[in-house]
Design a protein that fits this description.
The protein is of the alpha/beta class. Helix content is 43%, strand content 15%. The protein is globular and about 50 Å long. It starts with 11 loop residues before the first strand and ends in a 5-residue tail after the last strand. The structure holds nicotinamide-adenine-dinucleotide.
Length: 242
């Protein structure tokens, strides 16, 4: 067997939440690796990549968005379910049912809905990969966000494992990444308090947050044939945060 390849030449890669942060870095890295990339987001992404407006909580909008990707680029072979929100932590008693539902709607329902919409195209393409962006919060707990965030990301990990077993026989690999603290808009807000930021970093043996590119690199590895025997994994990318 030839050595599996890290490249994504010619593959159609759809990345949700790719206007900024980890998703944007992933879209850029996938393009560098030769992919034809679609950015699905509620706000515009990099001007040089195909932007398809898509709210991942709305099944109708999602169906139209994936139809557009197929029309413009061809059937999706790689889906990166990255779109997510991480509202700042509040005391548990103050977490409203609406806030709970909204977090689950974007972070977990969104993964389910986009996966269902993309799957017929991945099958049509003859197989592919799905990479979900979970979090260390799904295994341990969130330091800057709510219990709803942790629950949503735990759900993404369980969804990944189960779906991976269902789809592996068809040559569709499903894995997820579990980033620790990453530089960007979420932590600029949730860890704005210097004491909270240094308490978080104190738990990170690497002594710093990740850059979005450091997460994107692992996502693209899981999307590529270089990870051809990885199925249902939840890969920690967390600087040693345990
Ligand atoms: N930043 C971190 O420390 C960290 C750590 C672990 C996991 N994550 C996860 O990584 C992913 C990306 O995080 P980030 O730090 O890049 O966040 P970010 O806020 O910088 O980017 C999130 C992107 O998702 C988009 N988005 C939000 N709601 C959407 C919706 N309903 N439909 C479509 N797009 C939507 C936003 O417009 C934005 O472009 C999220 O799933 C997040 O939970 C982040």
């Amino acid at each position: 067997m030839p050595t599996p390849d890290l490249r994504l030449d010619g593959r159609v890669v759809a990345v949700t939440g790719a206007a900024q942060g980890i998703g944007r870095a992933t879209a850029r890295r996938a393009a560098e690796l030769g992919a034809r990339v679609a950015v699905l987001d509620v706000q515009p992404g990099p001007p040089d990549l195909l932007f398809v407006e898509c709210n991942v909580t709305d099944a109708h909008v999602i169906a139209e968005a994936f139809a557009r990707v197929r029309r413009d680029l061809g059937p999706v072979e790689v889906l990166v379910n990255n779109a997510g929100i991480a509202p700042p932590a509040v005391p548990f008693e103050e977490l409203s049912p609406e806030a709970w539902r909204n977090t689950l709607a974007v972070n977990l329902d969104g993964v389910f809905l986009c996966t269902q919409a993309a799957l017929p195209q991945i099958r049509q393409a003859g197989g592919g990969a799905i990479v979900n962006v979970a979090s260390v919060a799904g295994k341990l707990r969130s330091l800057g966000s709510t219990v709803a965030y942790s629950a949503s990301k735990g759900g993404v990990i369980a969804f990944t494992r189960h779906l991976a077993a269902l789809l592996a026989p068809e040559g569709i690999r499903v894995n997820c990444v579990c980033p620790g603290a990453v530089e960007g808009a979420i932590n600029d807000r949730n860890l704005a308090d210097p004491a909270r930021r240094s308490a978080t970093l104190a738990g990170v043996p690497a002594g710093r947050m990740a850059s979005p590119e450091e997460i994107a690199s692992v996502i693209c590895f899981l999307a590529s044939d270089a990870s051809s025997y990885m199925v249902g994994a939840a890969v920690d990318v967390n600087g040693g945060l345990l």
